[in-house]
């Protein structure tokens, strides 16, 4: 079993798993019986990169890219095309940005450039959020743990300003995914550190006679910047076609509290030497009192609505109207095994009637009938029946969401694919 798992642990980006490796059966004959062993094709090969042919990953899988290969910096977090389709923008780890001309893929520009002739536009921090103005001239980039949104000129390739999420009420923000409601000219940003959705009115774009510059911190009023509570660690956001609903995918399982009484001055003596409780347990949910009298708050229930869920937010009222627990839940049985972790819903695509949510640790896509505010089933992600039971595909949305709406509907309605559940 360990041998099998060693060679079949899949890479991030599970929708590509079917393209990443071939399953080669090897039959051994110990004594009278036989054993079938599954192994990756590059078991005895060194890693190599071959843009024009077959590359070998560290796991031993073979990768043959489709189309043209563009070499970019490591650790890409986010990818998005401009509305006019002329450029692609890629956010990388540690504040690196790549701009790709879709008509000339060889012209990929790294910011900052290696010779520092083109300066950085992100202050050493990025995450996955990218959004564009309607005219494709301005990009809004997630600043990660800097708690800001960087405003980027797509023509001059320079930073023109930034928007801070930090306020006296919400400090140490972490900018996650973001999107733009062009009808309202409004930016919607997830703050994964403070568990909230932030709304911010944008100034007119340069083509509308306005200008992009530093904006004040986001406040609490509608239009000036509403702050709406979400579940634990909001990660992905999408809007309904009519822009009346926002869908937020929350990937957090627990709400980790700060240890009371600890300051920078006394941290060496007041810090916890050992975890105050084990999970799962009543103490972990409700909290404990230490011998010194300090009360350590609990983590909350991993089955709470705030944990690993999708929230639907009415943008006309700034109110949450549905909290849906997608995927398989902790304690449920699946294929003779108990679920011990959450489903990790991470990203969402929304059609005219259904919303589709990728559950990273469940290897499935949950389908939401958002007109009726209910879950209607799951679409399993399968590769090969001999390995599907190991459930390690880690689905990510990019390969699925480009399907036309009607094809997505057909996939959902197909009786062979959805796994219906006994809940509304």
- Number of separate strands: 29
Given as residue ranges, the uncertain stretches (5+ residues, pLDDT < 50) are 1-23, 208-223, 398-424
Category by helix and strand content: mainly beta
Bin the helical content.
Answer: under 10%
CATH C-level of the domain at 70-229: Mainly Beta
By DSSP (H or I, 4+ residues per run), the number of helices equals 5
Using the 3D structure, state the CATH architecture of the domain at 70-229. Answer: 7 Propeller
Residue share in β-strands: 25-35%
Specify the overall morphology: globular
User: How confident is the prediction overall: mean pLDDT?
Assistant: 82
CATH T-level topology of the domain at 70-229: Methylamine Dehydrogenase, Chain H
- Rounded to the nearest angstrom, the distance between the terminal CA atoms is 38 Å
Strand order, largest beta sheet: 25-26-27-28-29
Characterize the biggest β-sheet. Answer: 5 strands, antiparallel
Computed Rg: 24 Å
CATH superfamily of the domain at 70-229: YVTN repeat-like/Quinoprotein amine dehydrogenase
Could you describe the 3D structure shown?
With 424 residues, this protein is mainly beta. Among the domains are: 2-63, no CATH class; 70-229, YVTN repeat-like/Quinoprotein amine dehydrogenase (Methylamine Dehydrogenase, Chain H), CATH 2.130.10.10; 275-307, no CATH class. It is built from five helices and 29 strands. It has helices spanning 2-8, 17-20, 267-270, 282-286, 405-413, and strands at 24-28, 35-39, 55-56, 62-63, 76-81, 87-92, 97-101, 104-111, 130-132, 138-142, 148-153, 158-164, 175-181, 186-191, 196-201, 227-229, 234-239, 245-250, 287-289, 295-297, 309-314, 319-324, 333-334, 337-338, 345-350, 354-359, 364-369, 374-380, 418-419. The protein has a five-stranded antiparallel beta sheet. Strands 5-6-7-8 form a four-stranded antiparallel beta sheet, with no helix packed on it. Strand 14 and strand 15 (196-201) form a beta hairpin.
């Amino acid at each position: 079993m360990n041998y099998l798992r060693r060679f079949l642990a899949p890479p991030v980006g599970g929708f590509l798993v079917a393209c990443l490796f071939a399953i080669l059966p090897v039959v051994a004959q110990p004594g009278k019986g036989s054993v079938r062993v599954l192994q990756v094709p590059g078991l005895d090969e060194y890693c190599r990169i071959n843009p024009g042919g077959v590359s070998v990953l560290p796991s031993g899988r073979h990768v043959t890219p489709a189309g043209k290969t563009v070499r970019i910096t490591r650790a890409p977090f986010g990818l998005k095309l401009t509305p006019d389709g002329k450029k692609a923008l890629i956010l990388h780890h540690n504040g690196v940005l790549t701009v790709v001309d879709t008509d000339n893929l060889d012209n990929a520009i790294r910011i900052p450039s290696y010779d520092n002739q083109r300066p950085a536009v992100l202050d050493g921090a990025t995450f996955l959020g990218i959004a564009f103005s309607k005219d494709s001239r301005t990009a809004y980039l997630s600043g990660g743990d800097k708690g800001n949104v960087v405003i980027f000129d797509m023509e001059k390739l320079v930073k023109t300003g930034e928007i801070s999420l930090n306020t006296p009420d919400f400090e140490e923000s972490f900018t996650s995914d973001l999107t733009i409601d062009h009808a309202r000219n409004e930016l919607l940003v997830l703050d994964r550190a403070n568990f909230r959705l932030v709304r911010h009115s944008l100034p007119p774009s340069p083509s509308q006679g306005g200008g992009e510059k530093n904006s004040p911190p986001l406040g609490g009023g509608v239009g000036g910047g509403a702050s709406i509570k979400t579940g634990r660690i909001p990660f992905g956001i999408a809007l309904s076609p009519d822009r009346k609903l926002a869908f937020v995918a929350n990937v957090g399982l627990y709400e980790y509290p700060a240890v009371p009484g600890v300051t920078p001055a006394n941290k060496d003596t007041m810090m916890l030497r050992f975890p105050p409780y084990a999970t799962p347990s009543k103490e972990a949910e409700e909290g404990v009192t230490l011998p010194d009298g300090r009360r350590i708050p609990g983590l909350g229930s991993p089955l709470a609505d705030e944990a690993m869920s999708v929230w639907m937010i009415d943008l006309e009222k700034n109110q949450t109207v549905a909290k849906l627990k997608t995927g398989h839940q902790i304690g449920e049985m699946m294929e003779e095994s108990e679920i011990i972790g959450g489903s990790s819903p991470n990203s969402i695509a929304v059609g005219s009637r259904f919303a589709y949510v990728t559950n990273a640790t469940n290897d499935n896509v949950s389908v939401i009938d958002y007109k009726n505010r209910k879950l209607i089933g799951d679409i399993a992600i399968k590769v090969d029946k001999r390995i599907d039971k190991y459930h390690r595909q880690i689905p990510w949305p990019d390969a699925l969401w480009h399907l036309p709406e009607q094809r997505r509907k057909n996939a959902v309605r197909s009786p062979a694919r959805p796994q219906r559940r006994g809940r509304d």
